[in-house]
Each structure stands twice: as structure tokens, then as C-alpha cells.
Write a structure and sequence with these properties.
Belongs to the type-B carboxylesterase/lipase family. This protein is α/β, with parallel strands linked by helices. The protein contains 18 helices and 16 strands.
Amino acid sequence: MTQLAESASADARALASTESGVVRGTDDGAVTRFYGVPYAAAPVGQLRFALPQTAAPWSGTRDASQRGFIAPQFVPSAAELEKALPGLDIAPLIGGDQQQGDDFLVLNIWKPSGAQTNLPVMVFIHGGSFTGGAGAADVYDGSAFARAGIVLVTINYRLGIEGFLPIPGAPTNLGLRDQIAALRWVQNNIAAFGGDAANVTVFGESAGAMSVANLLASPLAKGLFRRAIVQSGHGDMVRPIPVAQRLVAKLAKMMRVKPALDGFRSRSIADCLTALQKVSQPTAQIDLRNPDKREPAFGLSKFLPVYGDEVLPEHPITALRKGAGADVQLLIGTNTEEMNLYFVPSGVRKKLGKFLAHFMVKRAEPKAKEILKAYGIDDRKRRPGDAFTEALTDLVFRLPARRFAQAHKGRTHVYAFAWRSNAYGGQLGACHAIELPFVFDTLSTVSGPRGLAGGEPPQALATKLNGIWANFAKTGDLPWPEYDDNKIACTIDTGVVAPEVPFIAERFLP
């Protein structure tokens, strides 16, 4: 075949026809990629704070060879990032170098090259505290999944004030509604990319995993996916609408507008981002505790999904216990040292004293004193920051994830990820987000002196995890037993399968 003919063949492979029009991606002979494909109209003007609407059709062929816009968000400067996370390059995880713009309700697709059909589909929802992140961040590159025979989709959705603030007069949970709209787009269009709409697995990490957990419980998402993977997430990070509306009132006062749809629409997206940045500071005085005096986000984000609407009529755990999502196969797990990401680079784990540890936990958990004591904060042989970090890892991530597994009435598998990064002299360990480059087999994006995974992370483990995730999407099979009454979990990096060890904090919680 001549070079010209090869080029024409690759060009043809990179074309796909969606309901809105034809898109052209790129093809390297093994993987075809499409970036920035709209699944909904730009949420600006009268569509701002409105339900996601169908993307407008276009004529001709739309270029999908370059990464598209990301959702408006506050992007810290290099100096600010260095101050918060000294010595750590997190750009591959957050995609902060990508351009923001109006037309950001887009998705990205990786598929095996060639005219294949009925391939399993995986849809990934990025994290970022419900205020940041991007579906096309480097660590989420879907090429390895495509080479494994998967059609991999990543999405953007509305964030912060635009997506997770229950403004009176506007639909609630707009970020979740965007995600549901993207999943509906997949149902209607993924066959054009070789995918099987009847075999969709939705997965996410951190806030993306919390989103997946919420979708599992949502009646509006029923039937849109067959399997779900929840990485470092669960269904507890939600607020009742009346509690979240305290944040509405606070922001409206800051921006000098009425706490209603017209008030927030009268301020630009840039104005709202400025207010979001201010209200997200630890010094911002606002009580977001639930009626039980617990703050479900433990201060990690003031913006959370809400329940009490048509998206989440009741708390996700309550819904699961009543059978919501029972027809969906669930894989859920956490990393063993989640909070190290927040407290090791910042020096908090090393320097924190007992008084401040008690104060910080007490703001979110009424039994802070008893819990920290049980984790050994009074032990003179260890630092208070160690007890603090370990307790919060269990309170914020590990224990609620296991409770979510216990509430799910359908087939459930549980994992733990314990591989320890050697970054920060080995102190970063099995921190939050460390499993991502292994799941996506993108270790090169986070390796090196400033990388999350440190020096020379094991490629064999990335090959293993990517294969387990891909096989689960294909068949639903996993190489360890279900979680059922025996509470069997797999430490997925070592392959050790055993009944879960009870969490210290569990005996102090209702």
C-alpha cells in the first residue's frame, strides 16, 4: 500500500457519524481517538443553570483531533500548587493546562482501530472535589483500554456553582444531570464508534467515584449502565438540600445578589469562580454539618451533590438498601493510605499537634476525641499527625466505601490498593489517586522525581490492573469472590484475598 493510500485508509477509520454530525479524530493504526465531541449544548446564556440540552447539529465534518474545552474552574498558579503540594507535579491528574471555554460538555473516545462492532464500553467520570478536573487529563488516556478491545469514553461536566449548588429556581444536581446526559448520548451514539450500548461500565475516582455511587442510586440513571466501578468513593458525600442552601445564601451574600436563579445569572462565570475560591478557603465561616452534626466531606469540598430531588430522591445508602442499583454489578475499593496525598506533601502529617488534630476532626465528627484516641493519638511513641491521617483515611474513604458495598443488594466485589509510592522518601505511600495510572496504564505521566508514583513504578502492576478492569467490563468476571456475607476483599496489588479487617472508627459511628 502506498503512503497516500495508507493515509486515506487511516483518515477513513477516524470518521464517525453522531446524531449531531460527523466527527474526525486521529488513527495510529492501533487506536482511534476522538476529542471534544459534544454530548450537550454549551451551558451558557439561557442554558446556564438549566437542564442539559441536546447539542446543536453541525454541517460538514467536525475536527475531533485535539482536546476540547474543559469546564470553567479555578486553576491554581504554579506557585500556589508548589506551596500546597511542594515537589509534586499534579498537572497530569487535573488537566489544568487545558483551555477553558463555553462548549465544554464534551466527551473523548478511544477505540480499537478498524471497523469492529459490539465492543464493551467504559465511561469514566473524573474527580476534582466537584470543583475541578478534566476528562482528557493525561493520566486518563484511554489507549491501553482501546488496545484491550474496549471503547473508552471520558467526559466533562459542570462543576462548582454551575453544577453542584442547589439554587432556588434552578434544577438541582446539574453536574449529575450532565453525567446522565452523557450516558444517554452513549446509548444513542456509541454504536458509531464500535461500542455495544447494552454493555456499558461506568467508573470514576474520588468525586467521580462519588458521582458513580450516586448514579447507581438514581432513578434517572436506571438502565444506562450494566456495571459500575467506584474508586475511592461512596454514597455518603451528599447533603440534604436545606443544608446545601446555606452555601447558596453565603455565596449570594458574598456576590451581593439575591439567593435565587436570577441573582446568580446576573453574575458572570468568572465572578462565580472568584466567589467559589473565597468560600472554599478553610477560613470561610459556614456550617455545612448535617442534622446529625456530621460534615460528610470533612472539609474537602463545600460543593457536593444533594438529595431530596428527582435525581436523588433519598440518601444513596437508603436507596441502595431498598434495592436501587441491584441490577448493576459493582466493584468498589479504596487505597490504604488515602489521606497521605493531602497531609504528607503539606507537612501536616509530620507537624500537626494533638490540639489542632482534635479541632479539625471535631468540626466534622462529634466523636472526634474518642476516635483519635482509639487511633493512638495519645501514644507518645508516634506522632499525632499519624493518628490523625490514619483516622481520616478510614472516616472519609475506607469505612463509608465498605458501608456502600454492604448496602448494595446486587453482585458486589471489594478491593483495596496498597502499593506504596516512593515519592517523598516513601512517605506518600498508597495515597489518594495513586491507583489511577495503574488502572489506565499511564505510569509514564506520573513517574519521575516530581511524579505521584515516584521513580520506577512497576509496569507489571499497571498491566495487571488495566487487564482486570477491562475484563470486568467485558464479562463481569473478577479473580476473587463476591463480597456477600463473608465480606471478602482483595488487596488487588498483591492478590491477597481475605475477609476484611474491621475499621477502628466503625464502633464509634451510628
